[in-house]
Specification:
The complex is a heterodimer of chains A (about 250) and B (about 300). Chain A has about 250 residues and is mainly alpha-helical. Chain A is built from ten helices and no strands. In chain B, strands 6-7-8-3-9-10 form a six-stranded mixed beta sheet, with helices on both faces. A four-stranded antiparallel beta sheet of chain B has the order 2-1-4-5. The longest helix of chain B is centred in the middle third of the chain and has 16 residues. Chain B has two domains: about 220 residues, Rossmann fold; about 60 residues. Classes of the chains: A mainly alpha (about 250), B alpha/beta (about 300). At the A-B interface, helix 1 and helix 4 of A face helix 2 and helix 3 of B.
Chain lengths: ~250, ~300
């Protein structure tokens, strides 16, 4: 029998035991963003014809919450285990590096999806989306959580202190998500920044996910899927390479 | 017979420090084996390599015949390690911790055995306590329990009694001795040499990454031919020839160190000739601490 289910269960139980912090809090934060931005901008901004600003904003907020929480789940679990030393319990077991990866990744995806579903549920009162494109929605949600979950494993392994992890979060994840078109369409940017945005993989995740809701997007959703898929493969390969080498986990 | 633990020419370097410098060691199944050495001698490094927490630069290590790198899954299934640091996961209670640890080894329905080890380690009343709420001693017991969830034939205890009170130390040793009688191989590192002397059948001493002694505890104790006698006499001074050869100890007793018992006879004869009466005499046999100190100084 593989130890994967146990490590996955442990990771799930870990965030579920502190659900107020790991699920409820991000949902409340997203709701606040929605209230403030839609209050200020609803009557002034229309990004796509026939789509209200609030309807434009909600998919972005759902996606942003998923990204941040998937990342946060694997990265904070790993750094806490490393700092407290209890990572040794998994290291002493016969778990392979692949099982280790899949367990942390799986839990990060679930946390991202649970938070995303929560954000969507509370914003339902403002924008009831009738028929999203379920295929696009599922593909983008899963890929986004998987990419950030894997990136969280890398950050959690690499960081030796909480402030290093915070730096990773504040100087990489946060700018990438905020500057990806959660709150605006990149078509509203000057040409230079439009081009820059197209090098940000998170832009494709948000854009494609929004396409599932409003049927309109800045980029071709198939291109987005390709970028997201390539990112996932690349980051997973990096993560597996680090885990296999025992980088910062085994001396 | 396959050794429970086999280590061959193991070397490991950390930066500028040669933590292990060609260590070879075989530990027979069922042994109670002590690994002694000063801080930084390489004990924990050796254990880390066996457990897969560190990788050797050179040499090989195996547990129950399973190479710790090539066949790491089988090697880790055969090994239970009680780490030196008092680590715990504050998200879970005692029972959850043990169920999860069993799961890592692929064991699903392990409740009977978990109940049994919790019972033996007096953890049952604390089963639903969060690990954070446990006292230091209880956390140590939980670490022992975690090392045993998969019934490993080989158990490694890395300084399990550091900072542990007398009661726990006794119950821990009673439990570990029982496991040893039931056939488990025990590898123990400790700074409490009297514990090693009382428990271990064989002992290896490490210094600066090398094994400087490895023998049965009995042979090691006979290693030094220094003996010591403590005497109380009814006179204030010794015969002149003997004054330089004896030391005044605590409580006014005289201590005399000698290699051969005939030397003690000469002392007694000299005292009798001088008309000095021996009121009390005690022979002090060397203990492991003397042997350890002697070996560490000589090597």
């Amino acid at each position: 029998m593989s130890g994967l289910p146990a490590l996955f269960y442990k990771e799930m139980l870990r965030f579920w035991k502190v659900a107020v912090q790991t699920v409820v809090a991000p949902v409340v934060t997203a709701l606040l963003y929605l209230l403030i931005f839609s209050h200020v901008l609803e009557d002034h901004v229309q990004v796509y014809p026939g789509v209200t600003y609030t309807a434009f904003l909600v998919p972005g907020l759902v996606m942003m919450s998923m990204l941040q929480n998937a990342f946060s789940n694997s990265s904070s679990s790993l750094i806490q285990s490393k700092m407290q030393g209890n990572i040794v319990f998994a290291m002493l077991s016969p778990l392979s590096y692949l099982e280790f990866f899949l367990a942390y990744l799986g839990a990060a995806i679930i946390r991202g999806l649970v938070v995303g579903a929560g954000v969507w549920a509370v914003t339902w009162a403002f924008v009831p989306f009738v028929m999203p494109h379920w295929g696009w929605l599922a593909a983008y949600a899963l890929l986004a959580c998987a990419i950030l979950g894997a990136l969280g494993i890398v950050a959690g392994i690499w960081a030796e202190k909480y402030d290093q992890l915070a730096a990773f979060q504040n100087f990489l994840i946060l700018p990438l998500t905020f500057l990806s078109g959660v709150f605006y369409s990149i078509h509203s940017l000057p040409p230079f920044w439009q081009t820059v945005s197209r090098f940000n993989p998170v832009f494709y995740l948000i854009d494609g996910f929004r396409h599932a809701f409003v049927g309109q997007s800045d980029a071709d959703p198939w291109l987005g899927l390709l970028v997201a898929g390539a990112c996932f493969v690349a980051i997973s390969a990096l993560t597996l390479m680090l885990l296999r080498s025992g980088y910062k986990l085994r001396h | 017979m396959t050794p429970a633990i086999r280590v061959a020419n193991l070397a490991k370097r950390f930066g500028g420090t040669q933590a292990l410098d060609g260590v070879s060691l075989d530990i027979e199944p069922g042994a109670f084996f002590g690994l002694l050495g000063p801080n930084g001698a390489g004990k924990t490094t050796l254990i880390s390599i066996l457990a897969g927490l560190a990788r050797a630069d050179a040499g090989e290590a195996s547990v129950m015949g399973h190479d710790v790198v090539r066949d790491y899954r089988q090697a880790r299934r055969a090994l239970g390690v009680v780490p030196q640091e008092l680590v715990y996961d504050p998200f879970f209670n005692v029972r959850e911790t043990l169920v999860i640890q069993s799961g890592y080894f692929g064991l699903k329905h392990n409740d009977d055995w978990i109940d049994e080890i919790m019972h033996h380690l007096d953890l049952t009343p604390h089963a639903h306590k969060n690990t954070q709420a446990l006292s230091g001693g209880m956390k140590r017991r939980l670490l022992v329990a975690q090392a045993l969830v998969h019934k490993p034939p080989v158990i490694v205890l890395d300084e399990p009694t550091a900072g542990v009170d007398v009661d726990l130390r006794r119950s821990l040793w009673a439990f570990v001795s029982r496991l040893n009688r039931e056939g488990h191989t025990i590898l123990l590192t400790t700074h409490y040499l009297e514990e090693a002397e009382a428990l271990c059948g064989r002992i290896a001493m490490l210094k600066a990454g090398r094994i400087v002694a490895c023998d049965t505890t009995r042979n090691l104790l006979q290693h030094t031919n220094e003996h010591c006698a403590s005497l109380r006499i009814d006179a204030e001074t010794l015969p002149p020839d003997w004054q330089a050869r004896m030391q005044r100890g605590a409580g006014g007793n005289w201590r005399y160190s000698f290699g051969d018992y005939t030397e003690l006879e000469s002392l007694l004869a000299a005292l009798r000739t001088a008309g000095i009466r021996v009121q009390e005499m005690q022979l002090l046999e060397p203990d492991l601490e003397d042997v350890f100190t002697d070996i560490m100084q000589r090597t």
